[in-house]
Task: structure prediction
Amino acid sequence: MEMSEILNHMMEPRNYGNMNNCDADGIGKNPENSEKVAIYLKVEDNKISDIKFQAIGCSTTIVAGSIFTDSVKGQSLEDADELADEILNMLDGMSSEDAACSEMVAIAYKSSLETYNFRLEDANYPTITKMISSTCQPKEIEEEI
Amino acid sequence: MLSLSKRVHEVWLVTLMAGFMSKNESKLKLYDMSDIIFRHFTWIENDLIKSKIDYDYDRDMIPVKVEKLSIILNDINLRLSTIELELIKLDDRDLAERVNSDIKYMRFLLSSLPEESVTAFNTQRKLDNIELNEEATDALTLFLFEESYKEYELIMIYNYLKANSTDAFLNRIFNILIDESFFHLKSFGDMMAKMGILGVPRVIHKELYKVTNVVEFLKDGINEELLAKEECKKLADAVSNDSQELAKFFDFINYQENYHIALMKEALEYYTKEKNV
Result:
C-alpha cells in the first residue's frame, strides 16, 4: 500500500469510536498482551448501515481497522465476512506485526457477526470475544524461542 | 453536565491542534488557551465526581484538516458558543461564571489572531533544515503517531486517577506525570505539524483509564516506559547520521523516561505499602 494512503488513515482514521445503539459487537483479542479490537455493527436489511471500531493497540491496528470498516460500510454482512476471510488467508505473507493487527480486525468482525446472529434469537446475547493466533513478535525472535 | 464535559474535552483538543498548526506568535496564545480549557475540563470533572455522576472520556471524532488558520479559529469560536449555552444549565453557578469569564476573554483573543496558511496536513514529511533518508523518515513518522497518542492517553489516564483519588502523595506524582506528558505531546504534535502529518489522537478506550488494578497498571506502565526508552534510542540512532539535533532531542526524551519510571516506581511502592497489597 502507498505511504500516502497509510498516512491518510493514520491522520484521519475512518469509523473510529464507540457506538451506543449498535445491533451487535464483537472483540478480537491478542492473548499475548492487552491489545484488542472491538467492532460495532448497525444492520439494516442484511447490510451494514453503520460500523465503528475501537482498539487498544498500535497505529498498524488503527490503519487496518480504518481500511476494513471503510471497505465494508454499506456492504452485506456476507460480503464483509468474505473480506475478513480474505484477510485471514493473507496473514502468512505479512510481517508478524501486520499479521497480528490485521487478524485482530478480521476476527473482531467475525465475532461481531456471530454475536449479531445469536442476537436475532436472543437480544441479550453477550458480546463474543475471539483470540487471534498470530504473534506480534518478529519472526527471528519466535525462532529463538 | 456530561455533554458539557464532552464538549469542553473536544474544544481543548481543537485549540491544542490549532496551536500546533500555527507557525507564528499565535502558537503560544493558543497553547495558553488550550491549557485554560483543560483546567475547565478538570473542574467540570470534579463537579461530576461530587455529584456522583458516572462519566467517561468518550467524545466525537474531531475534523481539524484545514488550509487556513481562520477556519479552525472559527470552529473554536462556534464550539465555545455551544459551551456557553450548556453552561446556562449548570447548577454550579460559580463554576459557570468562571468558565464564562474565561471564554469571553478567549473570544477576544481569537478575534485578534492573524490569518495563516496551514501546512500541517500537507504530508510532505520534511523538517526545516533537516534532510532525513526514507528509512529515518518512516521511523520518525511511525514514532510520532504512536507516541503522540500515547502521551494523550497518559494525560487522560493520570488525570482520571488524580480526579478520583484524595491521596496527596499519589496525586503529586500523577500531577508531575501529567505535566511531563503535556510537554511531550506538545513537542511531538509540533513536530508532526512541521512534517505535515498532524492528526488528532484517537478516543481512548474506557478500559484504559477506568483502572481497576492500580498495582498492575503501574507495573505495566513501567514496562511501557522501558519500551518507549528503547524506541527513543532506536530513533535517535536512525536519525543520527542525518541530524544530530534530532538525535539529541530523542536522547533527551529517552533520559526523561528514567524520571517517569522512578516516579511510577515510587507510586507503586507507596500504593503497595498503603493498601497492603
